[in-house]
Amino acid sequence: MNSLESIYEQCPYCGESIELLIDASGGDEEYIEDCEVCCRPINIVLSVDDEQELCVRVYAENDAY
């Protein structure tokens, strides 16, 4: 798997498609990135399973995950 992947997800606030540049080489990770359209903070949760498949979840700041 390449260490950097460009993926598109939907902003949980404005609904626009946003591009995320993901570094999967570090394994599981959680961080906050501002939406490039509405500038609100998005929680991004990355997980890599045993087969090196990347799973990306995006949440609004106050949503439970």
UniProtKB/TrEMBL annotation:
Cite the Pfam families for this sequence.
Zn_ribbon_21 (PF14255)
Under the heading InterPro entries, the entry gives:
UCP037225, zinc_ribbon_bacterial
What's the protein name?
CPXCG motif-containing cysteine-rich protein
Q: Which organism is it from?
A: Zhongshania marina
Q: What is the lineage of its organism?
A: Bacteria, Pseudomonadati, Pseudomonadota, Gammaproteobacteria, Cellvibrionales
The lineage's top-level taxon is: Bacteria
